[in-house]
Every structure is written in C-alpha cells, then in structure tokens.
Amino acid sequence: MCGIIGYVGKNDANSVLIDGLRKLEYRGYDSCGIATISNNQLQVMKTVNRIDSLVPCTQKLGTSNIGIGHTRWATHGGASEKNAHPHVDNSDRFVVVHNGIIENYLELRKELALQGYKFYSETDTEVIPNLIAMNYDGNLLEALKKTTNVLEGSYALGVIDTKEPEVLVATKKNSPLIVGLGENENFIASDFSAVLKYTDAVSILDNNDFVVLTKEDVKFYDRNLNLKQNAVKYIDTNDGDIEKNGYEHFMLKEINENTITVKKTLDSYLDGEEIKFNLNIKPKEFKNIKHIHIVACGTAMHAGLNAKYVIEKLTRIPVNVEVASEFRYKNPILDKDDLAIFISQSGETADTLACLELVKQEGIKHISFVNVKDSTMDNLSENVLYTKAGPEIAVASTKAYIAQIMLLDLFAIYLAKINKSYDEEKLNDMLKSAIEIPNAIQEVLENDEIYQNYAERISYTSDMFYLGRGLDYYVALEGSLKLKEISYIHSEAMPFGELKHGSIALIEEGTPAIAIATDKKMIDKTVSNIKEIKARGADVMAITTIKDFPEDVVDEIIYLPEVNEIFSPLVSTIPLQLIAYHVTVEKGLDVDKPRNLAKSVTVE
Ligand code: AGP
C-alpha cells in the first residue's frame, strides 16, 4: 500500500527521501514522487517507474532540508505521473502526501470547484492541499485541523508549506504513521523501516492527533490542538533484517528463515511441557468459551483455517473462520462467551482492524496474533501474541505464515490443556516432538534443487491444481495463493474429494497438479483421487510423508520428513513456497514486488 516519508533537518532531504522510499518499496507501489523546497522554490518529481529512476533528477536539484515523499498504490485513478503524489494546491504552495482513502472526495471536489479550484488528477487526495489552502489563515497546523474536520475515510498525511520551509506537519486517522526523532533532524514515515538508518527513537502517532516537526523540535497535539506528550520507543530491529543478506530476493531469504522462525517461536513460548502466554484471559473464561471466530485476510486467513482444524480437534470448540472484509459487514452473531482471534502479519490490514474494532465494541474477548510490534493492531488489541518471524519484506508472505501456524498450534494445545479437552500425555508428546520441526524444515530447504527442477518443468503452464484433504487442503490453498500472486499463473486449490463435483472438467492432458498427502488415514482416498485425475491426463506430483506411498500412481514424488500430524503443514508448505518462488524466477518476473499487490492492505 502507499508509503509516506517526510523529512526536516540537517541533511539533504532529496537523498533522505529517496532512501526512505526504497525502504518502503516492499509495501507495493505503481508510482512514486518526492517534493522538496530549495531557496523557497518547490521542486516536485514523480515517476511511474521505479524509485531509482528519480535519482538522476534529484541530483540536478538544489539541496534542500525539508521534503515529503510517497510511493502510491493506485486506488482512485490509474498509475500515472499526474495521479502520483505529492499533490499541490492550485497556488503551488501547500504540498501533501496521503495514504488512505477519502470517501467523500467527490462531494468535496464539487464544493471546491464551485469556489473556483481546479483539479488536475483523478485522485481523492487532490482535494486536501486545496482545502488546506482554503482554510489557511496564517497557521498551517490550524488549516490542517480544519481540513481534517471535513474529511471522511482514512488518512495519514504529511504536509509542507513552500512559504514556511522549516516546518513539516502531519496527522493520521486509521492509517499508520510514525514519527522518527533524530539529532537535528526529524521524520515522519509509514513504518519504522524508512527511518531506522537515521534513528531508532520513534513515536507512534495516535488517530486524530497532529504533529509539527522542525529540525530541532517535535510537538504533538491532540484532536483539539492541545499539546500532548507522546511516548518515545527505541526500536531494536537490526537494520540487517531488512536487507537481502546475500540472497537474490527477499522472498528466498525469508523462506530460508522459516527454520529460525519456528525455533524462535518455540524458544519464546515453550518451556518444557509448559506453554507461556501472557494473556489477560482467566482459565475460567477459557473454559467457558462456546465459539471461536477467527478473522483475517489472505495468507493470514489460511493460517486461520489451519488453526480451525487443530483447535477443533484438540478442544472440540466450534471455530468459524471469516474473511475480514465479509465479517465486518455481515452483522456477525457474537456472544459474550465467544473468543475472537485476529491474525495479521502487518497489524495494519484495514478490514481486519475494522473487525477488531467491531468485536471490541461488543465487549468480546479477543487475542490478536501479530508480527509487527507497535502496529495499529498491536496497540488496539487487549491481548496480543507475537509471531516471531521478524521483518518480512517480500510481498508474498512466507515465514510470517509459518510463524502464525506454529503459534496457533501452540495456542490450540494451550487451550486443550486448560480445558482438559484432550489426552494430556498426547499433548505433551506433541510439545516434545515440536523441537524436531526446525530440523525437518531445514531438510526440505536443503533439497531446494528438487523444487527448482520441478518449477522449470511446469513454468510454461497457465493453469494448475493444488489438492489435499484435511490439513493438506489448507496447505494447498496457501500454495496456490503463493503461485498466483507472484507468478501470475492461475491455480486452484481444492479438497481432493470435491474436485469431481465440477472442477475436474478443467483437467486435461498435461495439467500440472500437486497432491499433498500427509494424512495416513486418508491415503486410500487420496490415491483414488489421484487416479481419477491421472486418468484425465493430469501431470501429478505428490508431496508426502507416507513412506509406503504407491509411487506408480504419480509422475513425481517427494518425500518429506515426518512430524506430528498437527505440525505437518509447517513442513509441507515449504516446498510450495519454493516452487512458487522458482517458477517466478524462471518466468523472469519481479518476485518481491508482484504487480497489483501491496504488502499491507491499509485501505478497504
Ligand atoms: C500474502 O502473501 C498476501 N500478500 C496477503 O494475502 C496477506 O496475507 C494479507 O493481505 C493479510 O495481510 P496481513 O497478514 O498483514 O494482515
């Protein structure tokens, strides 16, 4: 989604902004731009190409100590230079970068047009600098406050005034914005990564608050423009975590970090046979839970489906998994004894956050499984369990998904222990066996060549199937999404037994199909299903942990190390991540920044 960086300070703003934009690149964008002020002259540069293409132009500009920059992920109006940010008002004085959506922009545009304002882009954002110009009465902060009074929707805004080139003003509502506090320099940004090179001291702006930054000073204001104190946090994220560290792509680096991710999760929460979660929910309340709602989007939602299976198996508590964009508008049936679970890597996904707000309003117990500490979800949730994946930069989520599965498995066991709903000895055996998972993942990673060869073989295809039963079906869903989002190959994931109810019609000679088969109890059914698609020409690769799998029914077979059944997705997902990665490399596509996608979807 869009990324914002703003700077005022001792260094050249042009290079700080470019540097910051590069760090925000991972969020996904289709145009970008910066605005700086040099000798009271506004300099605006925009491009629909990559950030690096701005560099030669910045070198021709005069040095500047203030500026704002933006990566745009098109919503209102296509990807073009005129729609790219920063946007200026009609007098070229006030300059704005915006993340979010102004829902009433058409109405505001009409009102401004009646007063003679002209619009040069199709964006919702362009009303904002013009409203600021209209509201300006000698004080930029007050003009911004008056402007936000009429804005409906979500926004993070950075504003500069060409006639006051030492002040940067910002505000936010339901869209992330942080303030970086340096020495003789201060920053605003959509996330920490953009400022970490310069400072580790950051403050998170609250909804409807304002901040005024100069080179030496940062002042925070509440919604009524009363001065307020804002806590400063020191981020310990190692800058190395947001570099490729020798890997060709972030995605490959992150897939290879699956091993350490699982290890960190186990080390953080498991002490022998005891799972240590710091939650404000009493054992008695856990015992009373009648229903669990899991709400998330995309890959995080797939982790939720996996968790449904495991929680229901171990606790017999019914779980429903909902896509956040549906849950928020369906008037969900919620009861005071229910538990809601939110899952999010970024902690900034707009739909999931809206569901969290809804559940909070209803007074329902909830736990958020979040990867990014200090994200909006982290700050809004009454109970948070952190996934231990570390920064995930590639748009396609890999290690964060594995961390979600691991942590949700531990949560299911934790709940089963409290509720005494499953044989204690078996639960302890599961926990003991969990320490084998990192080695099993590592073994898969070391066999990467197999997946690379397979990827080369099938990269020509335009259609593909991922099939499985039970937990293997959820693995199939995630494998299919991974392939679609980065290689642009259409694929379909199906419960194996469901295929013959329609979609089998799509199987023809040579259609690649991956059959995930880790459930011994279902092996006969799975083999029959494989025969059905083989008979129709499918090219089938089986990924299995079952030693005596009948090899002759498939075209290719890959044996994975065996782990406890509930942990099998932690291992069987890795080949699918590697296959998606290698197919994409084979096709020469941009692995880390796929078209049309954003890392965190901060708008509806
Ligand atoms: C992951 O590969 C996807 N790009 C996407 O589905 C993602 O999982 C989804 O947008 C949810 O994001 P979140 O975990 O940050 O909430």
Describe the protein.
By secondary structure, the chain is an alpha/beta fold. It folds into 3 domains: 3-241, Glutamine Phosphoribosylpyrophosphate, subunit 1, domain 1, CATH 3.60.20; 244-435, 3-Layer(aba) Sandwich (Rossmann fold); 442-594, Glucose-6-phosphate isomerase like protein, domain 1 (Rossmann fold), CATH 3.40.50. β7 (153-161) and β8 form a beta hairpin. The protein is globular, with a radius of gyration of 26 Å. The model has no long low-confidence stretch (mean pLDDT 93). 2-deoxy-2-amino glucitol-6-phosphate is lined by residues 297-300, 344-346, 349, 352, 395-397, 485, 597, 600-601.
Overall helicity? 25-40%
User: Looking across the biggest beta sheet, what order are the strands in?
Assistant: 3-2-4-1-10-9-11-15
CATH classification, class level of the largest domain: Alpha Beta
Number of domains: 3
**Subunit arrangement of the protein:** single chain
CATH architecture of the largest domain: 4-Layer Sandwich
The CATH homologous superfamily of the largest domain is called: Aminohydrolase, N-terminal nucleophile (Ntn) domain
Kindly state the number of beta strands: 27
Q: Over the alpha carbons, how many angstroms does the gyration radius reach? A: 26 Å
> Can you list the ligands bound to this structure?
2-deoxy-2-amino glucitol-6-phosphate
| Beta-strand percent range | 15-25%
Total helical segments: 19
**Unreliable stretches:** none
Q: What is the general shape?
A: globular
How many strands, which pairing sense, and closed or not: the largest β-sheet?
8 strands, antiparallel
- What's the CATH topology label of the largest domain? Glutamine Phosphoribosylpyrophosphate, subunit 1, domain 1
- Report how far apart the termini are: 11 Å
Structural class: alpha/beta
